[in-house]
From TrEMBL:
Entry protein name: Uncharacterized protein
Transmembrane annotation, as ranges: 40-59
UniProtKB keywords: Membrane, Transmembrane, Transmembrane helix
Organism: Sphaceloma murrayae
InterPro entries in UniProt: DUF3405 (IPR021822)
Classification via Pfam families: DUF3405
Biased composition (Basic and acidic residues): 102-125, 133-156, 531-545, 556-569
Domain of life: Eukaryota
Signal peptide as annotated in the record: none
Record bears the keyword Phosphoprotein: no
Region (Disordered): 98-177, 298-326, 520-570
Length: 788
């Protein structure tokens, strides 16, 4: 290096090259600046999350408020305990396994087989396990109990039948003259055929009793013995229904019904004429039959109602200018109108028609005219001019009934009831008119009774009720038993279900009711009490206090609601002094087939349907009987008619007759007829459920079985408005399959046709029968209806 190169300081700054730039590396930072989109997107997401959280909190507060107010749908309740009970099997026993009633060991009630509530395995699992065990066991290792059970139900020969008629002992001294279907007195319906005994294991009724009423309980009826006289089992070509032709054992059964006689051709029968001839032939057995009152509503006649004889108070009848004395009626038989409620476009099938033939023959003709069957036909079209044009009325009433029943119908409409019972406040309870058939079923019955003084009693019946047994025997036994009942403790007994396996005899039951009423039920020694009670409504203390027994009229609290009370019956002695004498021998004014319960404090949804009464301090005393099938006296219907027309009082249909009887001190009786159930309920649990109201009654408390949320307990019984068991049992008895069980093949391979004791069934709807058609027959099932 020379001395000139020792340093670069001699070079100018501007002439020096800049040093190279060092490259920067961004290992933890963005190479570019953040964009605005990212910031806006983040803000939007955050805002949405905040709004969503606030919305959820708002919904939570609204849901909690709805739950507090009872507006929110509650979660579905658990299935009721009775669904775990096993089904009873021996209702479907056949005619090849009959045993005498006294020798029968009923499948139910059987205390030794009652299930315990709350055991670890439910009933269904236990039954399934037992079935699987049986399948695994070889036949030769089955135990003695299984072999004995099979031997008990092993089919044998079919038992013979005998004719059954409740009036067969009536001789010439009774004055009863036999009635026929034709004017020549040649055609008569044969007697029912009854088998002696019942199928082995046939259950007993869980409620009510045969022996108490004197109803026959020694035999059973198969379908041909019961309905064969009315068209079942022979073809339409010969005037039958054409149904039941394929049934097992039909030929032998029909020979037992008809013998050497020719089957009746029902196409040629007019039941209205047969009824009229029968009543005329036996007219000396009844008090003088007065003609119906003039219908001043439509007739507009000259004169006034005062010119017509009131057969209850008058002793003479004006016929022109002559006065004819009326013979003393003390020894005469009262007459009863049997009113069947139907409507103008009801479609009748052959099963309905056989049921109606049985009703008319067994009540009217067999009784010698004691009963007369009428159809109360509801014309739902208020614009049909049935009241102003005779031709329209005749066309509607003719088209409303099958040809063989024409001449037996009476038309009515809701508009007509609104005119007759004008002034009744229109409350539109549950959006239904007060004069409508649902809320005021008895209005046309009241007016019918007003126009027909020849009848003393009126049965109100429905098209979907059936009876396996003889109708005349049933209604006569019910009326006779009700007549014997003393009034002391009557309303209290009326309010409870009678369960013989728990309550013992009727006398024991009556004594129990007296103690419960007078002393209360402060403690219940029942293992099912906790299940039957409702912990959300702890009203047990009030429901268990002693009550004052009803003795005489129990009137509304407001005197302005009292109406024509001067004629009301008055107890002859104080309650404590009566020795169960008052009321014995007195005909019942009201007979029901379900308990007359107190709807107060229950959750029965119609308990507040009260019109025309002062309710500022609460509702008037009321009593309700579910299902309007009942017998009413002329005295009760007259009270109901005048209360509605003049005092403008009325209540819901099933509450109105019982409440009128309560207010006016009339005799009302619940007749505990035999009721069956389809499952093996422990009877103590059943009694706790069905009599779970005030002091062991069926009503008077929220825990009542008639409260809306508890009526499911009736589904397996044979008598309730929405029960499912009656229809299934009736169809199986007719020989048809139900849910895959029953039918012709099962009858042939098993025990034969089903045979059931006398029992009431309700409801029975839409029975689709199988018909056999032959050459020359009509090919379509006949039906009538449609007022135009």
């Amino acid at each position: 290096m020379s001395s000139r190169d020792v340093s670069g300081s001699h070079v100018g700054l501007l002439s020096q090259e800049p040093p190279p730039r060092r490259r920067r590396f961004f290992s933890f930072s963005y190479p570019k600046r953040r964009r605005r989109f990212s910031r806006y997107f983040t803000c939007i997401i955050a805002t949405a999350l905040v709004v969503f959280v606030l919305f959820l909190l708002h919904l939570k507060s609204l849901s909690e408020a709805q739950i507090r107010l009872g507006l929110k749908d509650r979660p579905p309740p658990p299935p009721p305990p009775w669904e775990e009970f096993p089904f009873l099997k021996r209702y479907h026993g056949g005619v090849r396994t009959l045993v005498p009633r006294d020798a029968n060991k009923p499948e139910y009630p059987d205390p030794s087989k009652e299930l315990e509530i709350g055991k670890k395995k439910d009933a269904k699992q236990a039954e399934a396990g037992a079935q699987s065990d049986k399948q695994e066991q070889p036949k030769h290792k089955r135990d003695e109990g299984t072999r004995a059970e099979e031997a008990n139900h092993k089919p044998g020969a079919e038992a013979p039948t005998d004719a059954f008629s409740p009036t067969k002992d009536a001789g010439p001294s009774s004055g009863l003259k036999r009635c026929f279907l034709d004017a020549d007195d040649e055609i008569a319906v044969p007697s029912l055929q009854m088998h002696h005994g019942v199928p082995k294991g046939m259950p007993d009724p869980v409620m009510g009793s045969y022996d108490m009423f004197g109803l026959q309980n020694t035999g059973c009826f198969d379908r041909y013995g019961r309905l064969g006289p009315y068209g079942l089992g022979y073809t339409r070509k010969y005037g039958g229904s054409g149904a039941g032709m394929e049934g097992e054992g039909r030929e032998a059964a029909m020979k037992g019904v008809w013998g050497d006689k020719i089957e009746i051709d029902y196409r040629k029968i007019n039941w209205a004429d047969a009824q009229a001839r029968c009543a005329h032939k036996n007219r000396n057995r009844f008090r003088q039959i007065e003609s119906s009152r003039n219908d001043f509503f439509t007739a507009m006649p000259q004169g006034s109602p005062s010119r017509e004889l009131d057969t209850k108070t008058g002793s003479q009848k004006k016929v022109g200018s002559r006065a004819t004395p009326v013979k003393d009626a003390a020894d005469k038989i009262p007459r009863t109108a049997f009113l069947i409620r139907t409507w103008f476009n009801y479609a009748y099938d052959d099963e309905d028609i056989m049921y109606l033939r049985a009703l008319i023959n067994e009540l009217s003709l067999v009784s010698g005219g004691e009963y007369t069957v009428h159809f109360l036909i509801h014309v739902k079209d208020d614009n049909l001019q049935i009241w102003s044009d005779d031709e329209t009325y005749q066309r509607v009433v003719d088209n409303a009934l099958p040809p063989e029943f024409r001449g037996m119908g009476t038309l009515w409409s809701e508009r007509q009831m609104g005119l007759i019972y004008g002034g009744v406040a229109e409350s539109m309870y549950r959006d239904l008119p007060v004069h409508g058939v649902y809320r005021s079923t008895y209005m046309p019955v009241q007016y019918f009774a007003h126009l027909h003084p020849e009848y003393d009693y009126f049965w109100h019946w429905e098209m979907d009720a059936r009876y396996i047994g003889h109708f005349y025997e049933l209604f006569e036994k019910l009326g006779s038993w009700a007549k014997k009942q003393p009034r002391k403790g009557l309303w209290e007994r009326n309010s409870r279900f009678y369960i013989p396996s728990e309550h013992g005899s009727w006398d024991d039951f009556s004594q129990m009711v007296r103690v419960q009423t007078e002393h209360g039920t402060g403690s219940r020694g029942n293992m099912y009490h906790k299940m039957a009670s409702d912990p959300k409504h702890p009203d047990e203390a009030e429901n268990n206090r002693p009550e004052t027994p009803i003795w005489g009229p129990l009137r509304p609290s407001h005197e302005q609601d009292h109406f024509e009370v001067d004629k009301d019956p008055v107890p002859p002695t104080p309650y404590a002094d009566d020795k169960y004498v008052w009321g014995v021998g007195e005909e019942a004014d009201f007979i029901t087939l379900n308990p007359l319960f107190d709807p107060d404090k229950t959750n029965w949804i119609l308990n507040e349907d009260v019109t025309g009464y002062n309710t500022t301090d609460g509702h008037p005393p009321r009593r309700t009987a579910i299902i309007t099938a009942s017998r009413l006296s002329r005295r009760l219907l007259d009270v109901m008619h005048r209360e509605t027309a003049l005092a403008r009082h009325t209540m819901f249909s099933e509450m109105w007759p019982g409440s009128c009887a309560l207010h006016h001190g009339l005799k009302a009786v619940y007749a505990p007829h035999p009721v069956y159930i389809d499952r093996r309920w422990p009877t103590s649990y059943l009694a706790a459920i069905f009599n779970n109201g005030r002091n062991g009654a069926a009503g008077g408390a929220r825990a009542s079985v008639f409260s809306d949320e508890r009526q499911h307990n009736f589904l397996g019984t044979t008598w309730y408005y929405h029960a499912g068991f009656p229809g299934n049992l009736w169809k199986r008895w007719l020989g048809y399959k139900v849910d895959g069980d029953g039918g012709e093949q099962e009858e042939k391979a098993g025990e034969g046709r089903m045979c059931l004791p006398s029992m009431l069934l309700h409801p029975v709807k839409q029975v689709d029968m199988i018909y056999e058609h032959q050459e020359g027959e009509e090919t379509e099932k006949q039906s009538w209806g449609g007022g135009e």
